[in-house]
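seq:
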Amino acid sequence: HIYNEIIRNFELTNRLLKEDDLLNACAILRTTYENIIYVISTSYDNNIIVNLDSQPKDFRVILENNCDKIFTNYFEKEDFNEIYKYLCKIIHPSSMKELMSYLSKTVKYKKYMINNLKYCIVLMEYMYLNFLNKKVDIVSDFDLNLINTSTYVNLINITFYFIDVDKSQRLMKKYLMYDTNNKYVKDNNDKLIELYNELMPNKKMIEIKIIDMAKELDQQINNSKYKNIVDEILKN
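struct:
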């Protein structure tokens, strides 16, 4: 049931994002992430005790301590908690809720938040499929290319968001991926401004480059018959 629920929740999250419903999409995505972590951890460790007192952290710890055995590549120990902390940060019922509601309803900022959440979806889908692939001894050549391309595009997204947010609204900058520890803005603000200044004169060229990379990924997917492989994995 949970396997099917994960697929349905990804589909639901994408529909909500198309409707610009950021907060509900994030809430569904956090539940989806918890389910993915649960499936992976209980599949890897058959001795794990699951009861009403079990917490998401209990399952994430298993991934953190065994990521090199569970996945084929890319993931670091810190990644699993960072994704969860970011999703919690957006939907946590606190005094910051008003700010998050403002960001999610303001067109100027919402597009960046939605793009950032789409990046989270890519990471989570990759995590899930990478785990399933390893279980059936399948290695996909383009997997890491997909992550690298997505990370590159999201870095551009973050850079433009940083510039668009007024200096007097510095707190808003903390609501993008990476700033789960409230240090990313402080440590990287100047670097991102510098990157923005480098990107702007070449904006059109970068757009063309991203389109070309996307076409290359599509070609790799078609050549590898990856969609057929995924369908077969999910059936089983």
